[in-house]
Design a protein that fits this description.
The complex is a heterodimer. Chain A is an alpha+beta fold. Chain A contains six helices and five strands. Chain A has a five-stranded mixed sheet with strand order 2-1-4-5-3. Chain A is elongated. In chain B, helix 2 packs antiparallel against helix 6. Chain B starts with a helix and ends with a helix. The chains are: A alpha+beta, B mainly alpha.
């Protein structure tokens, strides 16, 4: 290999590395929020192949929301989140962070689209956020309550926000097939 | 200062330090594999809690969503097993660039499918 080819290779590799690290820096830096054009380019380049998530730095936040479930097999309201989920695993090494995060994220996303007043829903809401939360609850009941047949259930969601406590009740829900 | 510079940046120590770093990373991946096995019913089984939605952008991006777009129990088990195997190969010095590249692709796929279970940052930003 001639010196010229070697030189070109080194320069090209250097340029690629500089380009890569500049875009990673923009993606992770506060410029992302002020310069939307730069943010768009860095987003296109970095996500999903070089993406780093916040979980590297952020522990599981404390929970202010509560989720109760009542199935047609049981007339009592059962607290599903956070206590039931916390009692699921007792491994200190592994913990319950993953499942806690999954539910708390879904509850927060759903609360963001719900109105700022307590509401009773007589049928299943059609938004995507509820679809995801409902899927998780339904599979939790199937897995941990050993319910194999179709079942009906209700959900009670308690949110402690800055505006005070809000209660949402979702009635007439059917298990997913 | 010179002593610190020598300790941290001396070339003759670098291969050993790189090997230590690779081993630490491989052990961390093995720990994550143990977590996935422990939480297998919740994360990968038929009644998994993870909600899947298909995502198609282009071939390059779709490679990181392969598991999510084509999820099956067998594919999930295979990816976790291969990840475990590649990490062990790395520890016993039998790995190579192809294995490491595949390992990276598998971790991307697992991270993308388990994304809602990984991030506490989104929760903070959205609450």
């Amino acid at each position: 290999m001639s010196n010229l080819v070697k030189y070109c290779l080194v320069v090209s590799l250097g340029c690629i590395l500089v380009f890569h690290f500049v875009f990673i820096f923009i993606y992770a830096s506060p410029f992302k929020t002020t310069n939307l054009k730069l943010s768009g380019y860095s987003q296109k380049y970095v996500y999903p192949l070089f993406h780093q998530s916040w979980s590297l730095f952020v522990p599981v936040p404390t929970n202010k929301n509560y989720l109760f479930v009542k199935t047609n097999n049981n007339s009592k309201w059962e607290l599903l989140f956070p206590i039931k989920l916390s009692s699921m695993s007792h491994s200190t090494l592994i913990g319950e962070d993953a499942i806690s995060l999954l539910f708390s994220n879904s509850i927060v996303y759903e609360l963001n689209v719900l109105p700022q007043k307590s509401t009773i829903y007589n049928s299943k809401p059609t938004n995507q956020e509820f679809e995801i939360l409902n899927y998780e609850i339904c599979n939790f009941l199937k897995l941990h309550k050993y319910i194999n047949n179709a079942f009906k259930y209700e959900i009670l969601l308690l949110s402690n926000s800055y505006n005070g406590q809000l209660i949402y009740k979702f009635k007439n829900l059917h298990s997913l097939k | 200062m010179k002593l610190i510079n020598t300790y941290l940046f001396e070339v003759k120590h670098q291969p050993i330090e790189i090997k230590w770093f690779k081993n630490a990373l491989s052990f961390f991946i093995l720990y994550k594999v143990c977590v996935y096995i422990y939480l297998f019913p919740e994360l990968f089984s038929e009644h998994k809690f993870i909600y899947l939605s298909n995502k198609h952008v282009n071939f390059l991006i779709d490679t990181s969503f392969f598991l999510s777009n084509n999820y099956s129990l067998l594919l999930g088990i295979s990816m976790i097993s291969i990840l475990c195997l590649f990490s062990i190969l790395e520890i016993i010095n039998k790995s190579n660039y192809i294995f490491r590249f595949l390992q990276w692709v598998i971790i991307l796929n697992l991270n993308n499918i388990l994304y809602p279970t990984l991030t506490g940052g989104d929760f903070l930003l959205n609450q």
